[in-house]
Amino acid sequence: MIYGALRLRVDELAPDAAAEVRRVYERLDPVAGGNDPWLEGFIDHWNGSGSWKAMSESARDRARRVGSTPAALAIARGLAEVNPQARLELLSDQGHMAPAIAPDSVWPSLRAHLLAVGLSLA
Fold first, then answer.
1. pTM above 0.70, yes or no
2. Across the chain, what does the average pLDDT equal?
3. pLDDT tens-place string over residues 80-92
4. b/e 65-89 (16+ beta carbons within 10 angstroms → b)
5. Which of 16, 22, 51, 75 is most buried, judged by most C-beta within 10 A?
């Protein structure tokens, strides 16, 4: 989610941070999002080059299902229940990576929540 927010202001970032955000977005293809080459780039970005290839097939299968299982939804609901400022909102046709690959679809909900909890957007 943070990369999605940073993408909107990439020109205001320090050069090294802007370069990292741009590198991440070079890999984020909304059409390919979630396929194996995309997941390999994502996993390797966060865990180091070769991490995807080093994962067992079982671990890769779990990575393919992140955010799309009933358990993931139950976890999100549980977190919302224990956090008094949380609000769970399901966005139709949006996957786990929507904040990164489609920030415009997520921003209205995120903005409304930030304003509701009293955070300034200026």
1. no
2. 78
3. 888 888 888 888 7
4. eeeeeeeeeeeeeeeeeeeeeeeee
5. 51
